[in-house]
Amino acid sequence: MKSFDLIEPATLDEAVALLDPEDPGVRAIAGATALMLLMKARLFQPVRLISLRRLTGALRGVRVAERRGAESGGLRIGAMTTLSELERSPLVRAAVPVMSRALRTLSNVRIRNVATLGGHLAHGDPHMDLPPILMTLGARVRAVSQRGERWIDMNDFAIGYYQTAIARDELIAEVEVPAQPAGVCAWYAKFTALSADDWPAVGVAVWYCANAGRIAEARIAVSAATDRPVRVAGAEAALVGASTTPAVFARAADAAADEVDPLTDIRGSAAYKREMVRVHVRRALERALLAESTPTA
Questions:
Q1: Number of domains in the chain
Q2: 93 and 158 together in one domain
Q3: Whole-number Å distance between alpha carbons of 28 and 123
Q4: Which of 27, 117, 248, 287 has the most CB within a 10 Å radius?
Q5: Mind listing the pLDDT tens digit for each residue in 8-28?
Q6: 112 and 155: one domain?
Q7: Rounded Cα–Cα distance for residues 229 and 203 (Å)
Q8: What is the DSSP string of 233-267?
Q9: What SS3 class is residue 112?
Q10: Helix (H, G, I), strand (E, B), or coil: what is residue 156?
Q11: Which structural domain, as residue segments, surrounds residue 118?
């Protein structure tokens, strides 16, 4: 491994000023759980690493967002919040239990103790568990640079295989999850073809609002099987206006399987993953309905 500079700025402004969009060897690191693997494999050889571990304040922790007009506040999560902190957060558990449940099976506890939300998103790996969930929850990301700040909708965040909308001169500062309507049904299902804590071969996040047994709005995102997390509009359309019945869920699952464009890799062929999408969209829709009527543990 070649030698490189390691700098530990004390403020976000200092960290942003150290970024160099013209040099791909300059990179910010948080938990570094993914970046260190790339460095050990010599897939990435840094010139300068900017450690964010000293940054505090709003970059860490979970807090209730301020109300915006008539909208009630959701959650604002600092980018340096570890995945274990998210898993244990009573605010997350109460506001978005689907995220709390998913975090229990995200990699293993050693990784969750170190990995941060910002790093989880910035890495851009299509196998990550939280991006499809955040897409269905209507979340957005605040990115900062010397040019200012901007908000990125999670549906626009992943732009390709290991590619995100975050520019090289930007850092993720926080994630905002809006308050969820009462009675929302949400679930995340994943299938791992290798070990239980391996990256999923298929990840499915579902979210829908049902009133008197009829679905008014629906969001479904598929990840891991595809080159980036994607919403499946055909499956969502199959749900809206329909009843929460097994037959409707099966039709939506068929639509999702028809719409996705899976990748073949070590975790399965494209045809196999397509069938896994079909199976797990249906299961996630069913489990979401059951979870909404069951008190959160």
A1: 3
A2: yes
A3: 11
A4: 117
A5: 999 999 999 999 999 989 999
A6: yes
A7: 9
A8: HHHHHHHTTSBS-HHHHHHHHHHHHHH--PPPBTT
A9: helix
A10: helix
A11: 58-177
Sign of CA dihedral 142, 144, 147, 148: positive
The answer, yes or no, to whether residue 240 has pLDDT greater than 90, is yes
CB atoms within 10 A of CB 104: 9
**Residue at token pair 């910002």:** 118
Q: Rounded to whole angstroms, what are the CA distances from 142 to 52, 150, 196?
A: 16, 6, 32
What does the alpha-carbon distance between residue 264 and residue 270 come to, in Å, rounded to a whole number? 5
Length of the chain: 297
Helix/strand number for the chain, H first, E second: 11, 14
* CB-based burial, 81-92: b 16+ in 10 Å, e otherwise: bbbbbbbebebb
Pair type for strands 184-191 and 202-211: antiparallel
Kindly state the percentage of the chain with pLDDT values over 70.
96
Say if residue 14 is in the same domain as residue 107.
no
Q: Please, are residues 236 and 219 in contact by the beta-carbon 8 Å criterion?
A: yes
Between CA 198 and CA 282 the distance in angstroms is 22
What was the pLDDT predicted at 293? 64
- 22 CB-near residues (< 8 Å, 6+ apart): none
- What is the Cα–Cα distance from 134 to 151, expressed in whole angstroms? 14
Residue 26 is part of a domain; what is its CATH number?
A: 3.30.43.10
**Of 160, 177, 194, which residue constitutes the final position of a domain?**
177
Of 138, 159, 177, the domain-final residue: 177
Instruction: Quote the tokens at residue 95.
Output: 């506001």
Q: What is the pLDDT of residues 29-39, one digit of tens each?
A: 998 787 777 88
Residues 80/118, Cβ–Cβ less than 8 Å? yes
Distance CA 112, CA 108 (A): 6
Q: Is the dihedral of CA 117, 108, 35, 7 positive or negative?
A: positive
